[in-house]
Amino acid sequence: MRRSFAFVLAGAFVLAGTALLGVSSTALAKPSVLVEGARLHGSNGVHVGPDGRLYVASFLGNEIAVVNRKSGAIVGRLDASDGVDGPDDLTFGPDGSLYWTSLITGNVVRRAPSGDITQQHVAPGVNPITFSDTGRLFVALDFFGDGLYEVDPDLAAPPRHIASNLGFLNGMDWGPDGRLYGPIWTQGRVVSIDVDSCTGAVDPEVECDLQTVADGFFIPAAVKFDSLGRLHAVDQSGEVARIDVATGDTEILAVLPPGLDNLAFDAQDNLYVSSATDGFIVRVAPNGQTRALLPGGLIMPGGVAVLSEGGAESVYVGDLASLRRFDGGTGEPLGVERPFLGFSDLHGPSSVSADGAALIFSAWFSSAVQVYDPATGAVLESHDDFVSPLNAVRFQGDLVVAELGAGPGAARVVRKTSGGSVTLASMTVPSGLAVSGGDLWAADRATGAILQVVSGGVTLSPPLEVAAGLDRPEGMAVDLDGSLLVVETGKRRLLRVDPSTGAISVVARRLEVGLDAITGTVPTYAMSSVAVSASGAIYVSGDKGNVVHRFRGN
After folding, report:
1. Residues 304-316: pLDDT tens digits?
2. I want to staple 83 with a disulfide (CB 3.0 to 4.6 A). Which of 5, 117, 121, 266 is the partner?
3. Cα(181)–Cα(246) distance, rounded to whole angstroms?
């Protein structure tokens, strides 16, 4: 599995937006919401609290949502002000304290019934969390590490390392037999572990009492026991299964869209299933009937591109955990491609641009730039020699990439030619890229500048500043009249910039953009983007509201 940690350094950038100058007042376009997505930016760990409500961790949304189990209404939210920072899994302690894990920072956090917050650092990648029947607390590492730990419920004593090299032990539960049960993400099996038989084992198969309970899964993500002591598992394939612990036989209870993440039971043995890729919560009743408690859909719309297909406009949206296709006129979903971490050639796209009949993706999480054929679903090119790429376009046959790099001073706009990579411009946080013939423009999210990098095929050194003072500009596109459209995330506006005069006007306000990034990710996060179709329709992705706006310019 390829992973890049360079994006962790991006959190060190301090961005200072400046006031926008010289903006003219014009009649504004009236945007409409073409696509409305999920109410959460992905749903991960779930648990029924002592108050009977469902608590849902949203890693990408940087929040824990409190949900009414009957109506599906979100009745409360815990966010950064409550110490929430990229929560992945959660549980409740015997005293009613809420505990959660922060995947990237590596912290375990406790919120006492009084509201007091304490936290303890374990290691990057801390993910599943569960209590034993006797009040012992256990966590494991995934993706950024691989291990099992016992943690002091008071978060005072140092964590005790139990085992390493498990293969990514994910959503766990304590069994009625006194063993710890959990899925091994990379091995397609569910195991049980006698935690007291392991003493920091390097090879858990040899040095721990570890037993395979069931196998043959695609990517098992989490397990839970119901009140009758029956083990259940969710698979990233979309299957919800009941496992006979004695025989290893499995019974499929429900088949949901792929990308399942976790599950929880209430006192009546209703099962609640979460989706990391679609953000839904589905309730599965004991009789197998399913109900969408929270609907799914877009969870983090970033890059947007429009292709003419069969006489109609297809809008492709990079949703970080998936690529989604919509009808440009109606917003009807036309398809979704879900990459699976470590198992797919396709990486989760954060930016998307049109490349003839193909698409170009950048994926900062895995430091990949790819060219994709939507007609066949094939990855035509894959480039892994960029560090935290934030955007990518085709320019005069070459790839041009907005590369954040591994730290301050490394960010640049780079052109990949047959003779090697060439730096076109050094920037602080390169974001939007726009192309028209032999002209290339780039936005710097940190400085608020729009720069022309290439003019008539000639690289400008230094680049020409076309506009300045914008508040966190991200996605850009060239409109049919040759002007630049720029998504200004800091002020939630779409701007029009005349590249020849630098004149700026506002096209639309109050866009649902500007989702705050979690610690350790890149400043652009979802990359709020804009695209223009051949008919003149303008599409803007709204990462904060999980929407796609559609409207026409002035």
Report:
1. 999 998 889 999 9
2. 117
3. 13
Q: How many CA atoms lie within 13 A of 161 on its CB side?
A: 15
Domain end position, chosen among 229, 263, 294: 294
Query: How many distinct structural domains can be found in the chain?
Result: 2
306 is written with which tokens? 């429009």
56-77 pLDDT, tens digit per residue, is 999 999 999 999 999 999 999 9
| 346 part of a folded domain | yes
Q: Which residue has the tokens 């009414």?
A: 68
Q: Is residue 185 part of a domain?
A: yes
Does the pLDDT of residue 7 top 70, yes or no? no
Same domain flag for 15 and 116: no
pLDDT for residue 474: 98
Q: Which residue in this structure is represented by tokens 């429009």? A: 306
- In this structure, the answer to whether residues 335 and 483 fall within a common structural domain is yes
Q: Are residues 90 and 167 in the same domain?
A: yes
Which of the listed residues 269, 294, 319 is the one where a domain comes to its end? Answer: 294
Asked whether residue 474 falls in the same domain as residue 412, the answer is yes
Q: Is the same domain home to 290 and 382?
A: no
Give the Å distances, CA to CA, from 475 to 73, 220, 371, 408, 418.
Answer: 33, 36, 19, 21, 27
Cα angle vertex 357, ends 374, 367, to 5°?
60
The reported pTM is 0.92
3-state secondary structure 334-373: EEEECCCCCCCCCCCCCEEEEECCEEEEEECCCCEEEEEE
CB-CB neighbours of 310 under 10 Å:
6
106 and 84 Cβ atoms separated by less than 8 Å: no
State the residue for tokens 């979802």: 526
Rounded Cα–Cα distance for residues 546 and 301 (Å): 6
Q: What are 530-548's pLDDT values in tens digits?
A: 999 999 999 999 999 999 9
Q: Are 445 and 15 in contact (CB under 8 A)?
A: yes
* Same domain for 29 and 87: no
Three-state SS for 131? strand
Q: For position 162, which CATH number holds?
A: 2.130.10.10
Distances 67 to 45, 61, 143, 546 between C-alpha atoms, Å: 13, 15, 28, 19
Q: Residue 247 to residues 212, 213, 233, 264: CA-CA distances in angstroms?
A: 11, 8, 15, 23
Is the predicted pLDDT of residue 20 greater than 80, yes or no? no
**Residue 221 near residue 236, CB atoms below 8 Å:** yes
Residue 477 sits in which domain range? 6-36+298-552
Q: Are residues 156 and 220 in the same domain?
A: yes
